[in-house]
Amino acid sequence: xxxxxxxLRPLEFFLTQYKRVWRGTAVSSVVTPVIxxxxxxxxxGVFVDRSTDLPNGVSYLEFVAPGLLAATAMxxxxxxxxxxxxxxxxxxxxxxxxxxxxxxxxxxLLGHQTFVAARVFMTAVVYLVxxxxxxxxxxxxxxxxxxxSVLVGLSFSLPIAAWAAHTQxxxxxxxxxxxxxxxxxxxxxxxxxxxxxxxxLEAIAYLTPLWHGVTLCRDLTLxxxxxxxxxxxxxxxxxxxxxxxALARMTYRKRLVV
Amino acid sequence: xxxxxxxATTNVGAVAGENRHPLIEARGLVxxxxxxxxxxAIDFDLQRGEAFGFLGPNGAGKTSTMRxxxxxxxxxxxxxxxxxxxxxxxxxxIRGRLGVVPQQDTLDMELTVRENIVIYGRYFGLPRxxxxxxxxxLLEFVELTExxxxxxxxxxxxxxxxxxxxxxxxxxxxxxxxxxxTTGLDPQARHVVWDRLYRLKRQxxxxxxxxxxxxxxxxxxxxxxxxxxxxxVAEGSPRQLIERYSTREVVExxxxxxxxxxxxxxxxxxxxxxxxxxxRVLLYTDDGDAASHGIHERGLVPDSILVRRSTLEDVFxxxxxxxxxx
Lengths: 258, 326
What we know:
The complex is a heterodimer of chains A (about 260) and B (about 325). With about 260 residues, chain A is mainly α. In chain A, about 80% of the residues lie in helices and about 0% in strands. Chain A has one domain. Chain A is built from 11 helices and no strands. In chain A, helix 2 (about 20-50) packs across helix 6 (about 105-135) and helix 6 (about 105-135) packs antiparallel against helix 7 (about 145-165). In chain B, helix 4 packs parallel to helix 6, helix 6 (about 155-170) packs parallel to helix 7 (about 185-200) and helix 9 (about 240-245) packs across helix 12. Chain B contains 12 helices and 13 strands. Chain B folds into 2 domains: about 10-235, P-loop containing nucleotide triphosphate hydrolases (Rossmann fold, 3-Layer(aba) Sandwich); about 245-310, 2-Layer Sandwich (Alpha-Beta Plaits), CATH 3.30.70. In chain B, helix 7 links the parallel strand 6 and strand 7. In chain B, about 45% of the residues are buried. Chain B is an alpha/beta fold and about 325 residues long. Classes of the chains: A mainly alpha (about 260), B alpha/beta (about 325).
């Protein structure tokens, strides 16, 4: 039996579980971008646009919207791959229920991550619709921000799932959120170009998957995509996913096959 | 009927090949965690249709053995064959034919009782439309039909256990692995679980269970092994074990205040063995009434005397010098 067929089964479980809460998440996935865009794109944007010139006469709304899309994918991935993974191992133990059936740890990892990807996908679709309605998407290429967001999500959710399958307690999740996710959210080019950062920080920002995701999304919505840099961003994100997948396979095996 | 007719296409070949071999076969089976040998070179054979028990205290290696049979824990050393297959290579196939009731429930608290069974059936790749009817049938078997659409969370411990049993039957397993099926349940709930397991046994399902309750082992097991510190220390039917390692009856003496350190003066020639425990003294004899009468005549007056039949607890005590539940 192929691993993909088997991975569909845990995916079905997570979708069944999600059916119970989807209404709440649907509302928040519409409301969240509206609030951010009103506050930052429209509110703050008035001041920014008055005092600065972003490249190519882009408005701050157009600048910040695709960045928020990518950053949202990151945050959602963090949420979906931290507590839920540890819980499925330690508290609610759904992984152990699955392991007693034909499913293997690799199928479970794949199935769970497919669910995370699906969540990011749905959220990105809603986000894109909202920012388009705000007039922040200049190019039809903007539609490609959806798969890019999924990739951004996975480049975070895979290493975070790897960590969640390794750690014994949830305390580190708060630290990761505070010291990794939040700084990335603020300083990876979402709200201002990283060229404005001090040089050492700028160098670090280049290494974050989020910067690559933000930049790629922005180039797409602005219709400003260069093939070479586009492929570079894509390659970097894929590499992060690949490393994350390898790590997660390792920690899942170590934790679940004992 | 709960047990569906086995489809000839999938099982005929396998069964024909297996009848000559034990259903589960372990030789020199070892499970090590670092330095600790949780299971230390054990041998056992299990035949189709029997109810087989691993009896022993916590930490004896029962769960580790079960997890290896269940193909969720790799064998460290020795050989293990389940349905004639190797767990290291054919884990997916083997698990598809097992029903597992783990020590700790793994039910999903957020889903309904019925959803728990259906989604579990999906893990085995069973079609959704078959699973609806199957879930209803199983819920009826464990008497949870009325709770079918309730969440699992508020169910009592006994109900959750029954649901776990129902869930483990969804794939129509040939062998059920039950790891301490009634630990933590009140006496009434235990009897309901025992009754369901007994019915399954009568339907021809092979039961493998671990327990540290001697009464559970006596109730359910045709044959059992006693485990202690990773090793099998005795094997046989409950009756055989009692005959081999204990006497027919046991006299239990309790003393409120002081009691003698040495009982030989009162018991010599009357009983075959004396076991002195912190809270009571056990005298092993084939005639409990005669023995209690005899010590009384010699002038020993305990605060209470109880004559009872020997149990597996006594066997365990004799073999290991310790009680099953400490």
